[in-house]
Amino acid sequence: MQKQERQQYIQTIIEQQVISRQAELVAALQAAGVEVTQATISRDIKEMKLSKVVGENGVAHYQMPSPVSEPNPVNQAAVPVPEINGGDLIKVKSQDQFIAVETVPGYGPMVAMILRKGEFPEVFTAVGDDANVFVVCTDPEAASQLAQRLLAIV
């Protein structure tokens, strides 16, 4: 199957179903008769610029990117940043001005984005992979306070 056709299947599936993890997308594609691997889906997700958003039910799921429009600072400021759900986090460790957060698989990028864009002034930056987030805070005291805040959520 051609990549373009496979990506059309992916778009149709995520527009019709709540798909929270790559494994769910692989299973949905296989149920539609499309044989794929998780690695292929991972590349397709990046290429298609799919993002994870938190739905009304509180469950994060993939969605297609919004159509590109002219930036409007007023509208951008009004876009709410989702909150971190305690069910998304597994473990929090801190040392010096660094925090390591273990998340449910698939939630690392979303948690990192929330820490960067949310109400966390103590966060210098956060980088997330599939199930981990590395957070750099402004100083060791800020890291300790944020780690305690995150542990309270867990």
UniProtKB/TrEMBL annotation:
Protein name as annotated: Arginine repressor
**Protein family per UniProt:** Belongs to the ArgR family.
* Role this protein plays: Regulates arginine biosynthesis genes.
One GO cellular component this record assigns the protein to is: cytoplasm
Task: Report the residue ranges that make up the Arginine repressor DNA-binding domain in this protein.
Answer: 1-66
- Per the record, the gene is argR
Keywords in alphabetical order? Amino-acid biosynthesis, Arginine biosynthesis, Cytoplasm, DNA-binding, Repressor, Transcription, Transcription regulation
Name the PANTHER family for this protein. ARGININE REPRESSOR
InterPro entries on file: Arg_repress, Arg_repress_C, Arg_repress_C_sf, Arg_repress_DNA-bd, WH-like_DNA-bd_sf, WH_DNA-bd_sf
Its taxonomic path starts at: Bacteria, Bacillati, Bacillota, Bacilli, Lactobacillales
- Give the domain of life: Bacteria
